[in-house]
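Field notebook, page 958. I keep forgetting to write these up properly, so this time I am using the form the group agreed on. The chain and the ligand, adenosine-5'-triphosphate, are recorded exactly as supplied. Prediction of the bound pose follows.
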Amino acid sequence: MVQPLVQDISYFSLSTSDEARFQQAREFYCGFLQFKVIKETSTTVWLSHESPDATSPPKTVRIALDSKIKQTSENIEILMADLEKKLHTNDWRSLKLSLVFKTNSLATIYQRCLARQKSSSFLFQTRPDNVAPVELYLLDPLGNLIGFTSASNTFSSGIPQLNVIKKEASKAQSLITPGFSVSHKAFEPRNIAVMTSGGDAPGMNANVRSIVRTAIIKGCRAFAIYEGYEGLVRGGPEYIREMGWDDVRGWLREGGTNIGTARCKEFRERAGRLSAAKNLIDAGIDALIVCGGDGSLTGADVFRHDWPSLVKELLDSGRITEEQYAKHEHLNICGTVGSIDNDMSSTDATIGAYSSLARICQAVDYIDATANSHARAFVIEVMGRHCGWLALMAGIATSADYILIPEKPASSQQWQEQMCQIVSKHRERGKRKTIVLVAEGAITNDLVPISTKDVADVLINKLGLDTRITTLGHVQRGGTAVAYDRMLATLQGVEAVEAVLECTPNTPSPMIGIEENKIVRRSLVDAVKLTQSVAEAISEKNFKKAMSLRDTEFSEHLNNFIAMNSADHNVPTLPVEKRLNIAIINVGAPAGGMNSAIYSMATYCMSKGHTPYAIANGFPGLVKHGAIKPLDWIQISDWNSLGGSEIGTNRATPSETDLGMIAFKLEQHGIDGLILVGGFEAFVSLKELEQARNSYPAFRIPLVLIPATISNNVPGTEYSLGADTCLNSLMEYCDIVKQSASATRNRVFVVEVQGGNSGYIATYGQLISGASLSYVPEEGISLEQLEADIEELKTSFKNDEGKMKAGRLFLKSQNASNVLSAKVIADIVNEESNGRFEARTAIPGHVQQGGIPSPIDRTRGARLACRAVEFIEQHTDLLKDIKYDEDYCSYIAKQSENDSESIKATAVVVGVKSNQIVYRPICQLYDYETEVKKRMPKSVHWKGVREVADKLVGRSHS
Ligand SMILES: Nc1ncnc2c1ncn2[C@@H]1O[C@H](COP(=O)(O)OP(=O)(O)OP(=O)(O)O)[C@@H](O)[C@H]1O
Ligand SMILES: O=P(O)(O)OC[C@H]1O[C@](O)(CO)[C@@H](O)[C@@H]1O
Ligand SMILES: [Mg+2]
């Protein structure tokens, strides 16, 4: 037995037989104190402790390695001084201890100790003044007691038997944190591997980062398989590597995939998959997460299907042992969908698709300028393989003149005629430029590919246009991921790890997807089948079926595009008696996507035969200047790519302006429906207009609010236009600031974030920039938390020793605290740092409103605007039945309680809720779901994201 450093210290040891268990342990108890691994990097493990019970805590605890280890190990260090200081200066109840082991994992500490001591024990020492009898427990990541050993010492002797463990465990249970259970279930170790496969996609790195860190947080070991299936087929330590916390530091903002990807022929063959299975088993991997496109996930599904026969073959040929066979009989596999093509069924978006869309829109916006200057036509080829999603969404976002996609093929003659007709009409109306987007998979209805040259030839020969071809190529796949992809990749990574941990041999393999705004688990087998059936339907020329198999959002976008594209020159689709006068107004601060909503509303109206009116400069504009007039097609034709509000916006609500005058103006122009686009002021305006229906019949028209505010605080929706543009601006700003902080080393920036009383932007800003924390109005800033955060900052800078290129960011919502401004926080940090590091402030201010709106805001603006028009069409007649008396509100409330389908509410917020587009009555929202004074919904959907954002940067709460 190794002699303890100090003679009067009690000590405990683990025997070698416990090594496997110890490797999995992420929590341990010493004298009934609970320590948790809160963060792990390749060089450091952070353990934290909170006193579980104020009545029986030991007063002090000291954990040390023995002198031999201390002297010989250059990497092992325990911050004893820090620990002691805290123990003596803090109240137990709020005490949080941090022990820092400078090594890459607990398991490594253990192994090193064994190697150095040439002994079979690992020593923890505690001071004898602990009041509780000192024992050491190891718990697995799920909280099960998996091991306990002690060598002879003052309090116990011999290796305790299981019954002792059980006894101590139940004793421990009564003392430890409520809700933390100690059971005796068999522990199932998890070594989780992640790989990226197929074409790289922006956001893959964020996905890997999230998977690696979540696995570590959950107490698992994380591995990366380099070079996709190629690495799996080749195997060995070169391709299958354990990943630590710091190995994925800074990956959020990096494009491509840092663990490599490949298109691997061998994996398509059984022999390749057999090697892959052997390599996985040899590396001890028991769960595999594949981030890739439809091909990669098809491969994953084939692998899952073949697995039982593969392992059997390996066993029969003696390539694996019985023990390995028993352990790896089932393959635990999960897919996260990473591909720019967005061609996988069962998910609305694949990781990378929106980044690629952003690249495409940016390129088309640039080309617009030169096309306009020369009055030229441009034929632009975009990627997407056999899927037209990128071309379609880019078509909507840039208001392209024509698109060719595989899902809606026509005969060669039809598409040529249709394109020429539309393009020449656009030219007749005064448009100087022509943009045609061609999906690389575009085909005729005879499955003959349509090339950009074919298209250009038609424009030149039939219309005589000066035409150029641009193939965007791999530019579309490069660069950093947009905010949405970072968010999607991160949240899906967390979900994937949770899914594999919850999987049993009988659970179908999951694929992680997103529906509208909700991360969902779907069956991998079904998703693959559905995806394959799209390709089959296309090859059978059954295009209707192919379209029906794409998600519903796809066909909705396509129908909208077709309608908007034929605006103002095709014969309107509605009979004269059904045509309406529909007005649109911006209320509140500008937000990205407002102009797209107007463009889309107007063109959609025109295609139907309605007359779209714009009210300029909000309600005051209407009242003071009578600023309401029909929208003109050529005037709005390039509004999609413009930020701000082209028609002008104003914060004043109707009651602050002049209700009577507003009613008069609407009546004067015979307005049949009004669309408000804006944030909380627009929400209040909607309520005021509805309430005023009793007095003013002019407001007895359908009223729809499209939420648009960077704060994303409109009740009734999880998403407001402008929030995505804002997040992207903030993200770019944070990336730059973080880069500066990293280069300077030892620097933290306190970034002040907008958002009113909503912490949405700050929270998602933290998630996508990897900021150390975010302070939000919903939580405020307690001095205790600030102190804890500064302590963590000190520790992390100390451990970095200037080596890591880690810039630190604190994000502070402007309204999180009036007293603790960004400047004050920075000053406190500077004061506390004792010159070891420094803090600066960075205030992006109105830059956060963004310049050019993001494609998400443009396309969502389009979708919500079309939905708003449809709502007005469907509800004009309903208004006749409604009695405008005082009970109107309870009438609506009753209606919606009883039967949401037949709600007769005609003043609504159109928004995204969970996984669908919903129309929520203002009356109900305002009265029951809003904290009006705070200008906030009573509950927010993104609370859970705060925890994820904190966890993934290793932040703990005081
Ligand atoms: N049917 C299959 N059986 C086994 N492996 C497959 C199968 N289909 C694809 N794979 C594997 O997945 C890899 C990637 O597939 P693919 O090249 O189609 O890219 P992807 O994952 O669809 O991504 P992207 O389309 O975004 O480039 C292939 O190179 C192959 O190794
Ligand atoms: O980069 P590669 O191997 O040439 O593949 C290009 C293909 O990959 C993708 O970028 C992603 O699947 C497709 O859009 C494109 O057809
Ligand atoms: Mg693919």
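OBSERVATIONS:
- Residues 197-199, 229, 263-264, 267-268, 292-296, 298-299, 302, 339, 341, 385 surround adenosine-5'-triphosphate (ligand 1) (CB under 6 Å).
- The two ends are 39 Å apart (CA to CA).
FOLLOW-UP: compare against the apo run.
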